[in-house]
Amino acid sequence: MHALRIGFLFVALIAGSGCASRSAQVRPSLDDMQVVAANDIQVPDADALSDARPLADAHAVSPPGEDAAVIEEDLALVYGDAEVWDPWEKQNRRVHRFNTVVDAHVLRPLARAYTRALPARIRAGVTRFFRNLGEPANAINHALQGHPGHSLATLGRFALNTTLGVGGVFDPASRMGLRRRDEEDVGQTLGTWGWRRSRYLVLPLLGPRTVRDTLSLVADQRVAPLRYVNDGTTALALQALEVVDGRTQLAAFDDAREDAYDDYAFVRDAWSQRRVHQIERDAPSE
User: What's the pLDDT band for 221 if we cut at 50, 70, 90?
Assistant: First the structure.
C-alpha cells in the first residue's frame, strides 16, 4: 500500500506538469481510434528544409498564432500531401523512447494496480466523473465550431449530471435523452477553422501532438475545471487519478503496440489518423 501511494505521488508530480491535459491524447475514444499499419514517410533532406526557411522568415512580423499557421502552410509546399507530416522524426523518436520508458515503469504498472484494486463499476464512475468535468470545454468548442445545438445539449448534460448524477459519477442525462457528444478541444476547433495540416510533434510526458495542438494547450488549460481547485494537494490527486484512469483505457492497444514492427510509426500513424477523423467529423459540411 505504501508503494502504491508513492507511485501515485510520482504520477501526481507528472500530472502537475500538465500530463493530465484534456487534449484527447490520454483518453482516446475506442470508437473512432482507427489503427493502421505503419507507412514509410519520406522526409526531405537538409537542403530542402533550408529552401523553406526564407518563406517562414518572410512572415516574422505576424502574431504568434498566425505566424505558426503561415509557416505550416509554407513548409507544406515542401512536404506535399504526406498523410503524416513528420519532419522532426529524429527528435520525436527520442522523446517517444523516453515516454515509453516512463509508461512501462510508472503509468502501466499503476494502471494495472488500479484495475485490480477497483471493481469495473467504480472505475466506470470515475471515468464518467472526469468526462463530465470536460463538458464545459466541449460546449465552448462545439459553439466555436458552429454547432450551437450541440453546445446547448452538452451544457444540459453537464447541469443534469453534475447535480442529479453526483458530480458526473452517474449519467441521468443519457436516460433523459441527452446523449453524450464527442469530446472537443481547441486543436480540433483550429482544424475546423482551416488549420488542417500540422507537423507531428511528440512532447515529453504529454505524448503525440501536432504544432497546432501544442499551441492550443494554453487555451485548453484555461478551461480545465481542475485548474480552479484551490487545494493544491486535492488538485494533484485528482490529476493523478485522471492520468491513471485514462491509461487504463489504453490497455486495449498494448498488445498491438508490442506486436508492431515499429512502435513509433504505429503510434504516430494511428494517432494522426484518429486526429484527422476528429477534425473532418467536426468540419461544417459544404
Answer: confident
